[in-house]
Amino acid sequence: MTGAPTGEPRTDGGVSLGLRVGHLSRVSSYMDWATLGMWAVQRRATVMMGMAEACLRHPGPGGESGPDEDLLRRLRALIAEAREYHAADDFPAAMARMRVAQDLVSLRIIALAGE
Question: Side-chain half-sphere of 112: how many Cα atoms within 13 Å?
């Protein structure tokens, strides 16, 4: 994602607010499904957590120096930890990481909506 002009107001790094919120909403939805999947069959949780991790594989809007990259780096680390704990059958630790990641995304979206 490059943050190409959309006619919307610009924020940090020249990336439109709508693009940032849209990207974070997509990330949030993948994390929702992964968190729900953790309550289901082991295989489903593993696949859904992998999808959440994959949606964060590349830089967000604005590239590697984009305005949300600090958050995305933290999310990548949290989801990787969650996958490790889940693979080790430590459900509480895995769920805690996923909930923290989800809350961080939600708080960023709320903060952007107030701009």
Answer: 24
Output the CA–CA distances (angstroms, integers) from residue 103 to 32, 44, 99, in the order listed: 11, 22, 6
CB 62 within 8 A of CB 68: yes
All domains of the chain, ordered by start, with CATH? Answer: 15-113 (1.20.120)
| 69: helix, strand or coil | helix
Using CA atoms, how far residue 28 sits from 53, 82, 107, in Å, is 11, 15, 11
* Count of C-beta atoms within a 10 Å radius of residue 105: 23
CA 15 to chain centre: 18
User: What pLDDT score does 40 carry?
Assistant: 79
Per-residue pLDDT reduced to its tens digit, 75-111: 999 999 999 999 999 999 999 999 999 999 999 999 9
- Beta-bridged to residue 10, according to DSSP, are 16
What is the amino acid identity at position 102? Q
